[in-house]
Design brief:
Length: 218
């Protein structure tokens, strides 16, 4: 179990040409994200929201500084020491800004394809979650034929349907109306209350409605 993730003077390499790199409450700072706490990370375009999520999730290492993952029991792993395949299966979940769905597969099949790696949720549970986000009549339609907002809801359900200690949601409601955003916030809150997970949401301005514990500017 991952109890916390610490950014120690992390700065994206893309900012190296700036006189002092980037600077914020996250970049070039010492900050710890803790399990059980919900964080909103806001920033304008080009400030590195997706890079931030990719660093946390272990998809990229083009940064200076160090990312530490503290395990329950006190063990600490630095970014290069992590087995991210295992972490992404058991401890870290992510909803990507570009969604990364399989366009030829239906919403049900997109969620179940990943869910089969962990056996976390039954197909009946998956279908119920898709119904809750308003996709009851679109569950068997290839995702390529869904609107971007509908695809966002599929990606959100997929992110919830796995074990995790931290869930990362990169601009999860950018193409959704308030009603759908509220439903997603309710589902996320239910899951956080059940599991005690840490929640990290990024936003360029339109926030997922949620009772965030900490709000940060990137």
């Amino acid at each position: 179990m991952i109890e916390s993730i610490t950014f120690d003077k992390v700065n994206p390499r893309v900012f190296d040409d700036a006189p002092a790199g980037a600077s914020s409450k996250v970049w070039n700072s010492l900050i710890t994200f803790r399990r059980g706490v919900s964080y909103l990370v806001e920033a304008g375009s080009g400030r590195g929201k997706s890079s931030f999520c990719s660093f946390l999730y272990g998809l990229r290492n083009d940064f200076s500084g160090t990312v530490y993952y503290e395990k329950s029991g006190g063990g600490v792993l630095s970014h290069p020491e992590c087995d991210f395949v295992s972490l992404r299966r058991n401890s870290l979940s992510m909803m990507f800004q570009d969604l990364r769905l399989f366009p030829e597969l239906s919403p049900v099949d997109n969620v179940m394809l990943k869910n089969r790696l962990t056996g976390f949720a039954s197909e009946a549970t998956v279908r119920d979650m898709l119904c809750r986000v308003g996709l009851e009549e679109r569950m068997e339609v290839p995702c390529a034929r869904l609107s971007f907002g509908q695809q966002q809801r599929v990606a959100f359900v997929r992110a919830l349907c796995q074990p995790f200690d931290f869930i990362l949601l990169d601009e999860p409601v950018s193409h959704l109306d308030t009603g759908n955003a509220l439903v997603m916030g309710e589902m996320l809150r239910e899951r956080q209350m059940q599991s005690g997970a840490g929640v990290i949401v990024t936003s360029i301005g339109y926030r997922m409605p949620y009772g965030y514990d900490v709000c940060l500017q990137l």
